[in-house]
Amino acid sequence: WRSTSSPEENNFIHWLHLILHSTVERVWWGATSFIFLSIHGLKFVFSPDKTKPQRVIWVLAFLLCLSLLFTWSWNRILYLMSYPAVTKIYMVWAHNMSFPAVTFCNKNVFRVSTLTRDDLYHSGYWMDLLYPNHTVINRSLSILKDKMMGRLGHQLEDMLLECRFRGETCTYKNFSTIYTRYGKCYTFNSGLDGNPLLTTLKGGTGNGLEIMLDIQQDEYLPVWGETDETSYEAGIKVQIHSQDEPPFIDQLGFGVAPGFQTFVSCQQQLLQYLPPPWGDCKSTPIDSEYFSTYSITACRIDCETRYLLENCNCRMVHMPGTSTVCTPEQYKDCADPALDFLVEKDNDYCVCQTPCNMTRYGKELSMVKIPSKASAKYLAKKFNKSEQYIGENILVLDIFFEALNYEKIEQKKAYEIAGLLGDIGGQMGLFIGASVLTILEIFDYLYEVFKDKVLGYFIRKKRPQRCQSDNLVIFLSL
């Protein structure tokens, strides 16, 4: 095959090829230089002024820095995906603080002098006062109601000898009644029945609650056997808690003994935890028909109630709800053993998460002996008791804030998206001298290449082409 083109045509084609090649080369070099000038090192890789060994060194250096950048960035991404958290603790001072709820129970559940013949007959087996081989009549099925617990329990108007809050006198009417596993108990500053919460304006003794109690040891049930309803100890059990959570005094309370004045210095702690995946706290509302606010104690009481309903078909008096209250026989044979097993051995049934926001009270206890030799006769005369009775039955409890401040313990996210972007951006600048604008330049260049090469190809393909003879005619006519 032999070309039939004239010398003029061959010269024109050669000239056009040179122009196109030169134009493409200039466009490519200009575009690449525009990008590579923003990334340190690459301009030396493609620079015509560098020798081949120099280019190889610059290629190796650039690849090393690029690998370090990717390694560090991947490490930061893995750290972000581990959802780290830090805990911050700091003190906050306040002008006044809400006083906590104070719940106390006498260690003795029933007063022996108030037990009637029927009480002994129907509940003696439960209290370990009678043998189990007695006949139970039908009316004992509902004998252990709130009324019985309220009637047989220690009455606050008899126990409370003196009461002062912030130096002002208070009475048994400032306490509300609540039932726990210890029977009839009393709460100061519960916030129930629409009563406003009491506040304190100062720290230290004399600026909180101070009560003098008579524990009435003469009314304690005789101990003839081992049972949860009879006590080896004499005194009261106390729990200091938030008004948002019910007392769980048999598990979380501390003891106060007669013959002593016990000082309890409190510090309020506000705890804020993070929900999963950063932490383990529970951020969803409580799924309970008994409580509206989630707390660990509310969760445990709700769980124990459901456990007894499933295993004994009844509930204890202190448990919420309207289900049937356990009879004395059910208490002795099922409820008490089941609840003891649940508390001591079954750790999988009642698993309660920590709430994301909770209030706790740290305590420091100290005590002094009362009465002194100088005050024994005065107190005996004042309360019409013997000096021995005063020493064996009287106690004083003084609860106050150590200072008008509270400790805030807050769990926060240790690493977030902003930190990740900052770390990656810093490493990009350190290793390859790039930034977000460099990335935008790269995307802009890729867009231009895509538009010119891909879209331009389809546009040129759809455009009608002129034949070579037409081009020659036009050229020759020029």
TrEMBL record:
Keyword Cell membrane annotated: yes
Subcellular location: Cell membrane
Organism expressing this protein natively: Amphiprion ocellaris (Clown anemonefish)
Membrane topology value: Multi-pass membrane protein
PROSITE patterns, A to Z: ASC
Identification of the protein by name: Acid sensing ion channel subunit 1
Chain segments annotated as transmembrane: 27-45, 57-74
InterPro entries (alphabetical): ENaC (IPR001873), ENaC_chordates (IPR004724), ENaC_CS (IPR020903)
Predominant subcellular localization, coarse grouping: membrane
Catalytic activity from the UniProt record: Na(+)(in) = Na(+)(out)
Signal peptide: none
Keywords in alphabetical order: Cell membrane, Glycoprotein, Ion channel, Ion transport, Membrane, Sodium, Sodium channel, Sodium transport, Transmembrane, Transmembrane helix, Transport
Gene Ontology annotations for the cellular component aspect, listed alphabetically: plasma membrane
Stored PANTHER family: ACID-SENSING ION CHANNEL 1C, AMILORIDE-SENSITIVE SODIUM CHANNEL-RELATED
GO molecular function: ligand-gated sodium channel activity
Pfam families tied to this protein: ASC
Keyword Magnesium assigned: no
